[in-house]
UniProtKB/TrEMBL annotation:
Coiled coil: none
Keyword Signal assigned: yes
Keywords, in A-Z order: Signal
Pfam families on file: SBP_bac_1
PANTHER family tied to this protein: ARABINOSE-BINDING PROTEIN-RELATED, SUGAR-BINDING LIPOPROTEIN
Signal peptide: 1-25
Protein name: Sugar ABC transporter substrate-binding protein
Organism, scientific name: Actinacidiphila bryophytorum
Entry annotated with the keyword Magnesium: no
Length: 456
């Protein structure tokens, strides 16, 4: 959590209108360890997501917000903890009463926690927090069960798009305001960029350290397919040993070996493509919006040179993010107090502009299209704040922003990192072996993923 930009983990949110009217008196103790009620009705709650001491700027922002919240709510005491929910220790903390009253989770976590009754149902209290209605419905749905009951509040989001080098597009005779929107166009544009010579790579992709499987998944989604599919009995099975999976790998193989548009250096992992983009040697790759300021700050690229387009294919985009859930051991008073904190800090449009202002003052990115959890009037407020305080070339991201509302957001599969590790092999072989047997690679990977998904 950065403590800065509106609409993101960096958002500064103050729920004055919604939270000030809450009645938060309690009659006794209960809930997670560290939560208590004093005789005067004060509720003490524990929350995580506080930045570490190694991030002093954002930690300072966080603690300032704690103080501001407690001033607004003198009957609530916030005890902040560093870090987020750790799946390896979660069950132990819950059983031992050490789980925070409000704890941060990634979007891949809620379904399992809800199924195991390891999070509190906050549906009865949502009407007291109308600001939550301005969060995108597809993000709120992540925290809902089949009955429509809600167990958490979104905090931030991201989705995959196409980062591209506008300068190389111009040099190759391509329109930098019209990035490719189909995989055929990606292939054609990559050939033109690679034809510039001087070591230029038209399109880059990953194949190491789980990043190859991650991108394979994103590319499957973009074509309207899955990587894993839930069965009628609730179990999951691999769903990529098919024509779509073959099309993904075949195109990469052909771009690498027939077109020579992906460069000879392969077995790339996360930082490699950012470094290549920063050095002006890469035309395009799949990424999230926050890659662009990282390319500028860590790899000395010029932000004005980079654009962001929608994911090619446009039939789905890999999406993620996180939010807060609440301990099932919380009392109603603790739930309401913890929700008031989460709305104050992360989910109120009243302070979107302040978030953008503070981000700009701290030289944090302002103007990226994501994270952005808002819809309706709040989305308009964010857009205006971004325009007012932007330190990023907002116009370069217009193709992404215009297309995103029409592209379905799809979460990562269960056991995502383990699946990605398996799929790394398929990605690596098609990019390093000209005679790679794509059918065999998909079949072998599918069997391995089925075994992973069948394991408890």
């Amino acid at each position: 959590m950065t403590g800065f930009a509106a609409g993101s983990r960096a958002r500064i949110a103050l729920a004055v209108a919604t939270a000030a009217g809450l009645a938060l008196a309690v009659s006794g103790c209960g809930g997670s360890s560290g939560s208590s009620a004093a005789s005067d009705g004060t509720v003490t709650i524990t929350v995580n997501d506080m930045p570490a001491k190694t991030d002093p700027v954002n930690r300072k922002i966080f603690l300032e917000d704690v103080a501001a919240f407690e001033k607004l709510h003198p009957k609530i005491k916030v005890v902040p903890h560093e870090g987020q929910m750790d799946p390896q220790t979660f069950a132990t903390k819950l059983a031992g009463g050490q789980l925070e009253n409000a704890f941060y989770v990634y979007y891949t976590d809620p379904a399992g926690l809800i199924a195991k009754h390891q999070a509190a149902d906050i549906t009865p209290y949502l009407s007291q927090f109308p600001a939550a209605d301005q969060v995108k419905p597809q993000l709120r749905k992540v925290f809902q069960d089949a009955r429509g009951h809600t167990y958490g509040l979104p905090e931030g989001n991201y989705s995959m798009g196409l980062v591209y080098n506008r300068a190389l597009f111009r040099q190759a005779g391509l329109d930098p305001d019209k990035p490719p929107t189909t995989w055929d166009e990606v292939r054609a544009d990559a050939r033109k960029i690679a034809a510039l010579g001087k070591g230029m790579v038209g399109y880059g992709d990953y194949s190491k350290s789980n990043t190859g499987g991650w991108h394979f998944t994103a590319e499957m989604y973009s074509r309207g397919a899955d990587v894993a599919k839930q069965q009628p009995d609730g179990s999951w099975k691999a769903d990529f040993d098919n024509a779509t999976g073959k099309a993904v790998l075949q195109q990469l193989h052909d771009m690498r070996w027939s077109d020579d548009s992906m460069g000879r250096r392969q077995l790339l992992e996360w930082a490699d493509l950012l470094q290549m983009m920063g050095a002006g040697k890469l035309g395009m790759y799949l990424a999230t919006a926050d890659n662009i300021p990282t390319i500028a700050s860590q790899y000395k690229g010029d932000p004005k040179d980079y654009g962001l387009g929608p994911i090619p294919g446009g039939k789905g985009t890999l999406a993620g993010g996180g939010g807060f859930m609440f301990s099932p051991k919380d009392t109603p008073e603790q739930i309401k107090a913890a929700m008031a904190w989460v709305v104050f800090k992360y989910e109120n449009p009243d302070r979107i502009e302040l978030g953008a202002q503070r981000a700009a003052e701290a030289k944090q990115p302002v103007g990226l299209p994501e994270p952005n959890i808002w819809t309706g009037a709040a989305a308009q407020t964010k857009s205006a704040a971004d325009k007012k305080y932007a330190n990023q070339p907002v116009g370069n991201y217009a193709p992404f922003q215009q297309a995103l509302p029409g592209i379905p957001l799809i979460l990562e599969p269960p056991k995502a990192q383990q699946i990605y590790a398996v799929l790394d092999t398929a990605m690596a072989k098609v990019l390093t072996q000209k005679d790679a047997d794509i059918d065999a690679l998909l079949s072998d990977a599918s069997q391995q993923v089925d075994s992973l998904l069948a394991a408890p």
